[in-house]
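Issue 218. Parser rejects a valid record. Input:
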Amino acid sequence: MAKILTIADAATLEVVEELLEREGHQIKVAPETQEGFDLAREFCPDAIICDGTSPQINWLEVCGQVKASRELSTAYFLLLTTPEQLAEVQDLDALVDDFLFKPIVKQELLWRVRAGLRERELRVELAFAQQKLQLSRDGILENEKMSNLGELVSGIAHEINNPITFIYSNLTHVQSYATDLIELLRLYQKQFVNPGAEIIQKQQDMDVEFVLDDLLKIVSSMRTGSDRIRQIILSVQDFSRSDRSGWQLFDISDGLENTLLLLQHRLPAREGRRDIKVMKEYGNLPQVECYAGQLNQAFLNIINHAIDSLEESSQQLNESESIKFRPVILITTQVVDPQRIAIEIADNDLASSEDITALFPDSFLTDKPAERSSPSGLAASYRIIVDQHKGEFKYFSEPGKGTKFRIEIPLRHS
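Output the parser choked on:
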């Protein structure tokens, strides 16, 4: 049954309390304005019955405070009044949901409360349906955008991969040829002990010993660089892999590693903060049936969010504190049970922050609110994990100790 708060004088309280308790409602009572509002904030009622005729109660003030409160604004507000008092009030519909003239007719009061509670229930259901519709619409747009972006990135990566593979493959031959030519030149130097003046001059001009020593180093560095480019391209291709084929088996550890590789440029020290250290504690996870590209995007959003928070923490510290502060991101994975795995992404963010929980339904649990620079990214991650993968996405934060996101997803969806 419903939670109902009655703010009225003693005589009215007695009538209302007795009548509504018989209906099985949970009743709280208050005799005056401030006590009534304090009790409303504590009780969070579904309906508020306020006696506008009592001299101890400023019903306009109560109504204004209730409507201004995010937690109480959805409560059904019934005013007990008189025709004379009502004639003095302008724009009553904007202030209260309904009114009832005194003296109270018990049956009419019951009808009004029942109708008001049902109306409130329908309003809440409508608001929830609108929220789900908006999330669904946003999710469709986000999925379409990510699909198009994934195809674009994958196509670019493929185009880059062809020439870089050609370069990398041929650098092996270049290194071998350079080694052979250097050995041949050394043999010539041994055989021709007294070369002509022109050769001696050329050796001095080009500093031949330095060139011979540095040539293989250059080729080796080029191979290392091209190999790094190949690894990045492969990671980009894997990160943006198409999900059009439906559910596919995926290694979560590989997804996290590819994501970290793409974010590697954000981890080195910058002005005002030290290097961000990423610590990994990966469990022995089985492959997960999922939309791999979407899940990678969720990881990217959350880790990006952690980096933003750590940068903000460093900026809020003074110079000596900033030098001591060591920003850390800890990523852990584990098997929860035979049907589920968990991924936790935690940081030691010290910054105080604003509420982000309004972006998510009530099931998005939080200990303390925390600010993030890209809340839309977190909302997208929530949709990917909860709506698409039927998992759980929980959020915990404690001032001075950091923030942790916990993801749980089922192993199979077939």
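Fixed in the parser; the record now loads. The two ends are 39 Å apart (CA to CA).
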